[in-house]
Specification:
By secondary structure, the chain is an alpha+beta fold. It has 2 domains: 1-228, no CATH class; 237-333, no CATH class. It is built from 8 helices and 14 strands. The protein has helices at residues 2-10, 73-85, 144-158, 195-208, 237-246, 287-300, 306-313, 321-338, and strands spanning 14-19, 28-37, 43-53, 89-95, 109-111, 130-134, 162-163, 170-174, 179-185, 188-193, 211-216, 219-220, 223-228, 231-235. It has a 6-stranded antiparallel β-sheet with strand order 7-8-9-10-4-11, sandwiched between helices. Strands 1-6-5 form a 3-stranded antiparallel β-sheet, with no helix packed on it. Helix 5 (237-246) packs across helix 8 (321-338) and helix 6 packs antiparallel against helix 7 (306-313). The protein starts with a helix and ends with a helix.
């Protein structure tokens, strides 16, 4: 927590403590604690983050636009294939407290966090009457992601990078000796290109932002990347293990196929729609969450379960126990892969 406060003070995020102006509703705050993990699901760092409660912000008053483009898994897979076919290097950089580099587009006041000392000249009134005027963006604010992307985009374009029109989170710079591609996912920057150009890009980024050099890209977007002599192996074994534990399927008996045998008779088909005499699953069964998690797997590394997941996704509005058993059957095939 102290490291986070020191970082916020270093970036001059907080302005003076003032009496909250009339007609201003200050946003709240919350401490969020995270365990940062690597590609092997090992805890490598414990992190505290002071987050603004942006849900209380009002559109048109506290913010306008909030959309911020990020790299998707399909784009990332294409860049990996490009690195393999062109024999390019892949490097991962992490921006330290990236959102704090963005500029505020409106006046925002935040409630005074615990531990902040009220000046003696203002101590005669209750603490609830005071707030801190933010001078920079803070995590949790609705426009933080957009303002950070704008800040990074403007800097890269000013340094000769071209913003890709189809994928606005991809920046490309060509030189006489090679080229470099920077793919942005919030504060993670994947740098792909020839050796000299990657080194120049790292120097360029460190000159403007505080960065962490994570070396060769090994883990990003829940994709595990293993660099081999004859190519790159991409898999999601760690993500799969997380899913099995999340849905309490890590102790299940393994099966070899992701679907039940279907029948040509619609009345006997286990994947038929909900019938009048069947009970629809309640919110305590995480059917939609399971479908979303499985769809991410199908799009990234597991096309073999695409048909089963697509079929079960059709019943997301009225799932029954039969459909939930179909979800569990897919999870059972993951046990085979892990064993």
């Amino acid at each position: 927590m102290q490291a986070e406060l020191d970082s916020l003070n270093k970036r001059k995020v907080f302005g003076p403590i003032v009496i909250t102006p009339k007609a201003v509703k200050p946003v709240g705050y919350k401490w969020v604690f995270v365990r940062k993990q690597n590609e092997n699901n090992e805890v490598i760092r414990y992190k505290a983050r002071l987050v603004a409660q942006g849900f209380s912000q009002r559109p048109g008053i506290d913010y306008d636009e909030i959309y911020s483009p990020v790299m998707d898994a399909i784009t990332f897979r294409y860049l990996i294939s490009l690195a393999v076919s062109k024999n390019l290097e892949m490097h991962l950089m992490d921006v330290v407290t990236a959102y704090l580099y963005g500029s505020l587009d409106s006046d925002i006041y935040m409630k005074v966090p615990e531990g902040f000392k009220i000046p003696d000249a203002l101590s005669s009134k209750p603490k609830e009457m005071y707030s801190i005027k933010l001078q920079r963006l803070l995590y949790g604010l609705k426009q933080s992601g957009r303002m950070w992307y704008n800040r990074l985009s403007e800097y890269l374009i000013s340094q000769g990078y071209t913003n890709n029109l189809i994928c606005p989170c991809v920046f490309i710079r060509k030189t006489t000796s090679g080229y470099v591609i920077i793919a942005v996912y919030v504060d993670d920057l994947n740098i792909i290109g020839t050796h000299k150009e990657i080194h120049e890009a790292i120097v360029l980024l460190k000159k403007e932002f505080e960065m962490k050099d994570l070396g060769k890209t090994k883990y990003c977007l829940d994709l595990q990347i293993e660099h081999l002599n004859n190519g790159i192996l991409v898999h999601q074994s760690t993500y799969t293990e997380k899913l099995l534990k999340r849905f309490n399927m890590d102790k299940a008996n393994p099966l070899s196929t992701p679907m039940f045998v279907r029948s040509l008779n619609v009345d006997n088909d286990p994947f038929r729609p909900c019938e009048d005499n069947e009970e629809v699953l309640g919110p305590e069964i995480p059917y939609l969450s399971a479908i979303g998690a499985l769809m991410y797997l199908t799009n990234c590394t597991r096309p073999d379960i695409s048909f089963a997941v697509n079929l079960l996704a059709r019943f997301s509005s009225t799932p029954t126990k039969r459909h939930w058993n179909g979800i569990k059957r897919i999870f059972d095939t993951f046990e085979v892969q892990l064993i």
